[in-house]
Amino acid sequence: MSKNLRVHKPYVIYEEKDHKFVWLGLDESEFEKGILTNQYLIVDGDQGALLDPGGYFVFERVFQNVSEFVKPENIKYILFSHQDPDVIGSLNLWMDMAPNATIYVSALWERFLPHLGVDVKGRIVVIPDEGTSIKLGNSEIRAIPAHFIHSPGNFHYYDVKSKVYFSGDLGAAAFPEGKWYLIVQNFEEHVKYMEGFHRRYLAHKKALDHLIGIMEKLDIEVIAPQHGAIFEGENVKKFINWLKSLDKVGVDYLWS
């Protein structure tokens, strides 16, 4: 790790026996590389599943922090929510450093991955539009269809054992310079960092309402987004209720 980087260490969101859900840290240099991204690791026994491992510039930090919890050769899955470069930009590195990992991605994006200069033949599972169930050790991860939130082929991932819901770009917050926190404490104050993204980057209110219906049927204790801060406890309900309150998003907002 470069000596000039200051690193926030991983934070274990959930741990019971041999099952963990881990936030994989943040290096402060990322303030110079666009919107901050969150990466997560699910561990069950000696196996790991990596969620949206991020772009090229975060690879060193993510790899180092993953290695504290699971051997790279025991990363069983790399699970992608969608196709953006801040999600998949490090894939060529992970293909080498996690040689036994299977890649999960929407069927819409499979044919785009070779453009990253990586051969994914034999190592990719395409997720059908309706989602799928993924077995990790003695646990289950569900790929939840979240299409048009904001990608047309998009999935969230629900860890059944920990009850943590990885929401991809849903819940994204853009902090102003010098402002950052990992866990939302004051939800009402946090809204101002989320609103702009949700108004523009979600495609349509109908898509959002459909996903909310799915989320409300799940037993969710934590919502962990790819950008911004994590929602716990009562803030999970507050966040879902806030999503319901959005009258216009995407095309509704632009061309109502």
TrEMBL record:
SMART domains: Lactamase_B. It holds the Pfam family ODP. Keywords: Hydrolase. The keyword Plastid does not apply. CDD domains: flavodiiron_proteins_MBL-fold. It comes from the Archaea. Residues 36-227 form the Metallo-beta-lactamase domain. Signal peptide: none annotated. The keyword Hydrolase applies. InterPro entries: Metallo-B-lactamas, ODP_dom, RibonucZ/Hydroxyglut_hydro. GO terms for molecular function: hydrolase activity. This is MBL fold metallo-hydrolase. It comes from Stygiolobus azoricus.
